[in-house]
Specification:
heterodimer; A: mainly beta; 6-stranded mixed beta sheet; 5-stranded antiparallel beta sheet; globular; B: 114 residues; 7-stranded mixed beta sheet; 11 strands
Chain lengths: 108, 114
């Protein structure tokens, strides 16, 4: 069945450093969504990518969807302590199948 | 104030007992979902429903049951057949399946079975 792999599982950075998480699917996706879950909270939608090669930016966050629509990345420039949390990608071929997430910790 | 509500936030049950988790939404969404979250395991789909009186099994449906008698409500029952029920359960809703629009998640219910 469809699988979505996400790496790394954990990332510890110093405040101000950049951060990237990668998402790879075993099959071509119709779209990919990214969510952020703060510690003790619930996932909150960040963005959806639909087109092959699409790049979207939200302030310090840059999201990319691969040309083959099988991979995606989220890059955060100059991390802040407010970026702490777990970032999930969700790939859709029908239902949304989530990766295991990347847990980001930021040291002030 | 629109949203998706799960209750209770924390739930304790004895082993062998069935327990029902509540999920209500007033977003007029057609689709509703139940996910289970374990440390390091991400979000795994238990059941989903596209319309009233219809639902489908997800990847880990064994030991769980659901109903969808009303559009707004999608309760999940964790039965005694579920071998490892202790987990964080998240309900979500969206405009439809396939999930081509954002999913709204509830606050979650943390179930502990002792």
């Amino acid at each position: 069945g469809q699988q979505v792999m996400q790496i790394p599982q954990y990332q510890h950075v110093q405040e101000g450093e950049d951060f990237t998480t990668y998402c790879n699917s075993s099959t071509t996706l119709s779209n990919i969504q990214w969510y952020k879950q703060r510690p003790g909270g619930h996932p909150v939608f960040l963005i959806q990518l639909v087109k092959s090669g699409e790049v979207k930016k939200q302030k310090r966050l840059t999201f990319q969807f691969g040309e083959a629509k099988k991979n995606s990345s989220l890059h955060i420039t100059a991390t802040q302590t407010t970026d702490v949390g777990t970032y999930f990608c969700g790939g859709s071929q029908g239902n949304l199948i989530f990766g295991k997430g990347t847990k980001l910790s930021v040291k002030p | 104030d629109g949203g998706i509500t799960q209750s209770p936030k924390y739930l304790f049950r004895k082993e062998g007992q069935n327990v029902t988790l509540s999920c209500e939404q007033n977003l007029n969404h057609d689709a509703m979902y139940w996910y289970r979250q374990d440390p390091g395991q991400g979000l795994r789909l238990i059941y989903y429903s596209q319309i009233v009186n219809d639902f489908q099994k997800g990847d880990i449906a064994e030991g769980y049951s659901v109903s969808r008698e009303k559009k707004e409500s999608f309760p999940l029952t964790v039965t005694s057949a579920q071998k490892n029920p202790t987990a964080f359960y998240l309900c979500a809703s969206s405009w439809g399946v396939p999930m081509n629009t954002e999913a709204f998640f509830g606050q979650g219910t943390r179930l502990t079975v002792v």
